[in-house]
Amino acid sequence: MDIILLQQFLIATLKTGTPLLLIALGELISEKSGVLNLGQEGMMLMGAMAGFAGAYYTGSLFFGVSLAIFSGMMMALIFGLLSLVLNTNQVATGLALTIFGTGLSAFLGTSLVGTTIDGFQDIHIPLLSDIPFFGPLLFSQDVFIYLSLLLVGVSWWVINKTTIGLTLRAVGENPHSATALGFNVLKVRMMTTLFGGAMAGLAGSYMSLVYTPMWMENMTAGRGWIALALVVFASWRIGYLVLGAYLFGAASILHLLMQGFGFDISPNLLAMTPYLATIVVMVIISSDALKQKLATPASLGKPFDPKLH
């Protein structure tokens, strides 16, 4: 493979994998506390629409990002109130949230469909960006890529090296024991749910302000669902999550690379690659039921009522 083509492929992989990494990281933290939120796609779409609308009408990209994060958190708050406070079924509530977010984002963004703006540009770090091959790959990226890697490092440290992470894992494994130790299970779960919503909104703003700086209905193209599969693929480990996000990112653009090499295959079939990869990964993971059961947070998706404790 030509060195320039390889470099461009890796750069595109970083950009394609970043929204997956952001939204999957939020879902992983949420699931660590025992909350299964299937509303990722809806929250991400709301973030994409709100982020674009905020930036378009105010002229401020950072305001757009802030609005996207806020919208994601508000969607997550709806989920939290229903599933955590009122104890509705988490799976059904999450699915309803995705349907709601998909429809609401399309409705609110109707007048903006096809509109474009000047999104975030790549940041070129002096001297480092001039390093052959690795300079453009590692030191000439947009702020979201750097932020995503920073969030990964901070999240890993918090989960594995702090009492906050210990509390979060205790709540996810056995909320009754956590309550007996004095932890407020509902508060912890609500905080992680809001964090997941914020990350979904941030991932959505990446789609509409960086990846393709415009608004289109359903522009996330199922990335919220892929993120849910990524968390399972990573066995709730942040290191594996990073690897999985970029692997799925590479799969998403592989069809463009194959077309560049002249493969005579329908582009529609090649575009199915990331979704096919998702199915294959889930089948492989499901084949080892014992290992998967041991990795899954014990209280994932299970309602908890402190009054019954």
From TrEMBL:
Keyword hit for Transmembrane helix: yes
Cellular localization per UniProt: Cell inner membrane
Transmembrane segments: 6-26, 38-57, 63-86, 93-117, 137-159, 193-212, 224-257, 269-287
One protein family per Pfam: BPD_transp_2
UniProt GO cellular component terms: plasma membrane
GO MF annotations in UniProt: transmembrane transporter activity
Record flagged with keyword Transmembrane: yes
Keyword line: Cell membrane, Membrane, Transmembrane, Transmembrane helix
Domain of life: Bacteria
Protein's membrane topology: Multi-pass membrane protein
InterPro entries: ABC_transp_permease
PANTHER family membership: ABC TRANSPORTER PERMEASE PROTEIN, SUGAR ABC TRANSPORTER INTEGRAL MEMBRANE PROTEIN-RELATED
Protein's name according to its UniProt entry: Nucleoside ABC transporter membrane protein
Originating species: Vibrio hangzhouensis
